[in-house]
Design brief:
The N terminus is likely disordered. Strands 7-6-8-5-9-11 form a 6-stranded mixed sheet. Strands 2-1-3-10-4 form a 5-stranded mixed sheet, sandwiched between helices. It has 370 residues and is an alpha/beta fold. Helix 3 packs antiparallel against helix 13 and helix 14 runs antiparallel to helix 15. The chain is built from 16 helices and 11 strands. The chain has 2 domains: 190 residues, Bacterial extracellular solute-binding protein, family 7 (D-Maltodextrin-Binding Protein, domain 2, 3-Layer(aba) Sandwich), CATH 3.40.190.170; 158 residues, D-Maltodextrin-Binding Protein, domain 2, CATH 3.40.190. Helix 9 links the parallel strand 6 and strand 7. Bound molecules: calcium ion. Calcium ion (CA) binds next to loops.
C-alpha cells in the first residue's frame, strides 16, 4: 500500500511540474523548485458587503487567505468591501467587464439584469442551505447556473450561506396582511416584490445605509440577515419587534464571481486552489453563523427585543404571492422556466426526504424557547 501511494504521489508531482515552464524534473527537490517558479498572480475582489459584517464579508478573506497559503503566496487576492472600489450594486458588472477579477455577492442584487439570477441566491419559500448545496454540487444547479453566468462572462462558485434568515425589524406589531399595508421596508430581491404585492413599499439599501434610514423614519421596517449581523447593525434600538422566519430567504447562497477570461488564464493548479478555497469559505460561513447566531439572539432578547412569529395569515398570503410571481417570471422566459422546474423538482424531492428525517427529529428534539 505504501509503495502504491508513493508512486501515485510521484505521478501527481510530474503532472504538476509539466505546468511549470523551465522547471527541471526528476529529483526529490523538484517539488520545491516547482513552487518557486510558479507565476505571481495578483487579483482584486470586490464584495457587496461592508467590512463590519465580519461573517459574511469574512468569507472573501477566508478565500483570499487560503489561496495564498495553497500557492505559497504566489497567487494573492486583495479584498475590497462594498463602496471602496465600486458600489455594491455594480459588483457583477465590474467582474463581467474585467475591471476586477473577482466579486463576492448575493446574486439577487442583480435580478434587474436577469431575474433568473435569483436562483443562484434564494427565492421565497425556496431551498435551505443544505438543499442549495446539494442541487449545486450534485444536482443540475451547477450546469444551469454556470450557463446563466456565462452570459455575463463569469464563472461562479458557492461562497457561503446565512441559513434561514429572520423576518426583520418592525416598529410595531404586524399581525395581519392589512397591517403590512403602507409600510416602507428595506427588503431586496423577490422578497421585496412579494412584499409589494402585500401592500408594502419595498426598498433596497446597502447594509451600511439601513440603520440611518430606519432611525430617521425614511423606512418603517427592515430585514437584514440574522441575530448576529442584525445586532451589529443596531436595528433593535429603533424597531423592537423582531419577526421570523424570513420566508423570502430560507437559505441565501452567496457566490464568488470570477471573470471567465481571468479564470481561463490561471494555471490549473491555481484554479484548483481557488475552487478548494471557495468550497472551504462556503462551509466556513455557515458554521460561523451557526455558532454566532444563538448567543446573539440571547443578547438581543436580553436587550428587550420582542420576538414574534409571522402569523399564518401572512405566511399563507406570502406563499401564494410568491408562487404567482415565480410562475409569471417563468411564463416570460423559457430559460427561467427551465431553472424553476429543476429547482422545484429537486426541492420537492428533498423536502420529502428532509421532512421525514430532519423535521421529525427536530420537531421532537429542539427546545422551543421562543
Ligand atoms: Ca436578508
Amino acid at each position: 500500500m505504501k509503495r502504491r501511494k508513493f508512486i501515485k504521489a510521484g505521478a501527481m508531482l510530474s503532472a504538476g511540474s509539466a505546468l511549470t515552464v523551465g522547471c527541471a524534473s526528476g529529483s526529490d527537490t523538484d517539488g520545491a523548485a516547482a513552487v518557486q517558479t510558479r507565476p505571481r498572480v495578483s487579483w482584486r475582489l470586490v464584495s457587496t458587503f461592508p467590512r463590519s459584517l465580519d461573517t459574511i464579508f469574512g468569507a472573501a478573506e477566508t478565500l483570499s487567505n487560503r489561496v495564498s497559503e495553497l500557492t505559497d503566496g504566489r497567487f494573492t487576492i486583495r479584498v475590497f468591501p462594498a463602496g471602496e472600489m465600486v458600489p455594491f450594486d455594480q459588483v457583477l458588472e465590474s467582474v463581467q467587464k474585467g475591471t476586477v477579477e473577482m466579486g463576492h455577492a448575493a446574486s439577487y442584487y442583480f435580478t434587474g439584469l436577469n431575474p433568473a439570477l435569483a436562483f443562484d441566491c434564494t427565492v421565497p419559500f425556496g431551498m435551505s442551505a443544505r438543499q442549495y448545496n446539494a442541487w449545486f454540487y450534485y444536482g443540475e444547479g451547477r450546469d444551469l447556473l454556470r450557463s446563466l453566468f456565462a452570459d455575463f462572462n463569469i464563472v461562479n462558485f458557492p461562497g457561503g450561506n446565512t441559513g434561514v434568515q429572520m423576518g426583520g425589524w418592525f416598529r410595531r406589531q404586524i399581525s395581519t396582511v392589512s397591517d403590512l399595508g403602507g409600510l416602507t421596508m428595506r427588503i431586496p430581491g423577490m422578497g421585496g416584490r412579494v412584499m409589494d404585492r402585500l401592500g408594502v413599499t419595498a426598498q433596497v439599501l446597502a447594509g451600511g445605509d439601513i440603520y440611518p434610514a430606519l432611525e430617521r423614519g425614511v423606512i418603517d421596517a427592515t430585514e437584514w440577515s440574522g441575530p448576529y449581523d442584525d445586532e451589529k447593525l443596531g436595528f433593535y434600538k429603533v424597531a423592537p419587534y423582531y419577526y421570523y422566519p424570513g420566508w423570502w430567504e430560507p437559505g441565501p447562497n452567496l457566490s464568488f464571481y470570477i471573470n471567465a477570461d481571468k479564470w481561463g488564464s490561471l494555471p490549473s493548479d491555481y484554479q484548483a486552489a481557488l475552487a478548494a478555497a471557495a468550497a472551504e469559505a462556503n462551509v466556513d460561513m455557515m458554521a460561523d453563523y451557526d455558532a454566532k447566531n444563538p448567543p446573539a439572539l440571547e443578547r438581543l432578547l436580553g436587550n428587550g427585543v420582542e420576538l414574534r412569529p409571522f402569523s399564518q395569515e401572512i405566511m399563507q398570503a406570502a406563499f401564494t404571492a410568491s408562487n404567482e410571481l415565480l410562475q409569471e417570471e417563468a411564463a416570460a422566459d423559457p430559460a427561467y422556466r427551465a431553472m424553476l422546474e429543476s429547482y422545484d423538482r429537486f426541492k420537492s424531492s428533498s423536502n420529502r426526504w428532509l421532512g421525514t428525517s430532519e423535521l421529525s427529529f427536530t420537531d421532537f428534539a429542539y427546545e422551543r424557547e421562543a
